[in-house]
Amino acid sequence: MTTTASLPTPAHQLSTPSTTTTQPKQEDVNFQGLPIPRGPVTAALSFYKAPEDGAPPHNYVEPAPGVPQRNWGDDWEEVTLNDLRGSESKFTLDHNAFDTYQNIQSAEHDFTSDARIKEVYYPEVEKLLLDNIQGAQRVLLFDHTIRRPTGNRNPVTRVHIDQTPLSAAERVKLHAPDDADALLAGRYRIINVWRPLNGPVMGFSLAVADSQTVEDEDLIPIEHRYPDRNGQTAAVRYNKGQKWYYWSGMGNEDRLLLKCFDSDETVGQWGRVPHTAFRDPRTPEGAVGRESIEVRALVFG
Ligand code: OGA
Ligand code: FE
Question: Can you tell me which residues the record assigns to a coiled coil (predicted)?
Fold first, then answer.
């Protein structure tokens, strides 16, 4: 025993990692050491339930005191969500109305000042879209939303699409009044660029339904009442033909693109992606709450 201790260690025994280690791999845990939920999962999603009284459905963006925020209900359905992680290249904006990008750097880290977000982050998003979206000639970023457990915006746990064909055209008129006619005559898309601010995402991931599996008749226009004007969003009826996905453990350098509208009906039949955050039954206790930003873009050409 004592004699072997003095012998030099053979080189092949010097490396420490072993293939039989029981330590979790780096990418399996977050910075808290908690396991990142991955792979297929069954979760309850909230779909559209028509108003009991047969009235047309509406939302109030800022409901007056005592006024219900909406006049329509929830249809909770258990849905299987497949994990996009590892299959990213199978999905495109044209065919499925969503897409994924990885290893995207940003010079903005705080996301606490709207002015800085517009100055630093907006140009990065614009470049991402111009460089990657086929045919894109011009990008107009018109809105962003920060969601933080400590802020006033939370994850949206209801299946929806941000715009309808009607409100997409209204957005063009609202944000590009001077050349709206010319722009409306060409191709225009509305695309949200979504990313976490404190990835990897451990809960309330965004789920997306492949546009190809969504029937037009399951999309219900909802009058979206702002204090000064009415817009329109779409609610979504459950249909067992819908195929749902999420992108596990999204990191700060991941970007999920959601196409809410495309005026070119020959591409993926009016591609539009129903989406919702979902409560993941696997989220470990004590995991950090999801923080995210989504930037909304009109993409012309
Ligand atoms: C969106 C959206 C909800 C969320 O980006 O359009 O609906 O929970 N986000 O982040
Ligand atoms: Fe949305």
Answer: none
Q: Is 195 in the pocket of ligand 1 (CB under 6 A)?
A: no
Nearest to 160 by CA among 79, 237, 266, 264: 237
CA 295 to ligand 2 centroid distance, Å: 10
What range defines the domain where residue 66 resides? 43-300
Residue 292 CA, closest ligand 1 atom number: 10
Q: Which atom of ligand 1 is nearest to the CA of 275?
A: 7
Kindly give the distance from the C-alpha atom of residue 157 to the centroid of ligand 2, in angstroms, as a whole number.
10
Region 182-210: mean pLDDT is 98
Residue range 163-183, pLDDT digits in tens: 999 999 999 999 999 999 999
Which amino acid is present at 27?
A: E
Is 19 within a domain?
no
Assign 298 a pLDDT band (cuts: 50, 70, 90). Answer: very high
Q: Which residues neighbour 68 within 8 Å (Cβ) at sequence distance 6 or greater?
A: 60
* 143 CA distance to ligand 1 middle (Å): 12
Nearest CA to ligand 1 atom 10: 155
- Per mean pLDDT, which range of 19-23, 182-186, 254-258 is the poorest? 19-23
Query: Considering the domain boundaries, does residue 5 fall inside one?
Result: no
How many helices (DSSP H) and strands (DSSP E) are in the chain?
Answer: 6, 14
Using DSSP's 3-state secondary structure scheme, residue 223 falls into strand
Residue 112 has pLDDT above 50, yes or no: yes
Q: pLDDT-derived band of residue 100, with 50, 70 and 90 as boundaries?
A: very high
- Does the beta carbon of 292 lie inside 6 Å of ligand 1? yes
Distance 206 CA to ligand 2 centre (A): 9
**How many distinct structural domains can be found in the chain?**
1
- Whether 11 is covered by a domain: the verdict is no
92 belongs to a structural domain = yes
CA dist 148 and 197 (Å) reads 9
Distance between CA atoms of residues 101 and 112, nearest Å:
24
Question: What is the pTM assigned to this prediction?
Answer: 0.91
